Amino acid sequence: MNSLRVSKFKSSPITGGSLFAREIIEIDDTYVTIRKRKFPYTSLKSKSIPIRNIINIKVSKTGIGTNILIESLSKTIIFGKGFSASHTSEIRKLLLG
After folding, report:
1. Which of 12, 41, 50, 83 has its CB surrounded by the most CB atoms within 10 Å?
2. How confident is the model at residue 39 (pLDDT cuts 50, 70, 90)?
3. Apex CA 44: angle with CA 82 and CA 65, to 5°?
4. If you classify domain 7-96 with CATH, what class do you get?
5. Is 0.85 topped by the overall pTM?
């Protein structure tokens, strides 16, 4: 039985994320996925990119937290905001190797 290791990172209102609709970035062996809601009681939307197709990762600092932009070969973009600096550096490390 194969066990798939999944790393999860959640945005926080303390670092600029939404109070009621937190964003979650999940990284497993093959995909990076973001799950988010626009409003607290709306449906959960997710977007995935194969790790092998990632071409660019940009981290921008905001006043109290960081945002991360992940781009793929197929022009798919994952944008997450309100993460701590340690989370974005760990995400970057996991994706770039």
Report:
1. 83
2. confident
3. 0
4. mainly beta
5. yes
